[in-house]
Specification:
This protein is an all-alpha fold. It has 4 helices and no strands.
Length: 86
C-alpha cells in the first residue's frame, strides 16, 4: 500500500469510526467463517453491502495497527470498497 493509499484508507477508517463502527468482531455463521478461512478481502468478501464497508474498515485497521503488508490485489479490493463506502 503506498502512502497515498494509506492516507485514503485512514480517512475512510476515521469517517467510519466516527459513525460508530469500531467493534472489532462481527458475528457470522460457521459456514460463512469456513468460507472465509484465511482469505484476504481480494479472495473473500461479505455479501451484504453494509457488512462489506465494516469488514474492509476493520481489516484495514488491523493491517495498520500491526504494520502488516498488503498485496496488490488486496489493496485494489480495499480501495474499491472504500470508494463504494464513500
Amino acid at each position: 500500500m503506498t502512502g497515498h493509499d494509506l492516507r485514503t484508507a485512514c480517512l475512510v477508517i476515521t469517517a467510519l469510526a466516527a459513525a460508530g463502527t469500531s467493534c472489532p468482531r462481527i458475528a457470522v455463521t460457521v459456514r460463512s467463517n469456513w468460507a472465509k478461512a484465511d482469505k484476504d478481502p481480494a479472495q473473500w468478501m461479505r455479501s451484504a453491502p453494509s457488512a462489506r464497508c465494516r469488514y474492509a474498515t476493520e481489516w484495514t485497521v488491523t493491517k495498520l495497527r500491526w504494520n502488516l503488508s498488503v498485496g496488490p490485489a488486496e489493496a485494489a479490493t480495499l480501495q474499491a470498497i472504500a470508494a463504494e463506502c464513500g
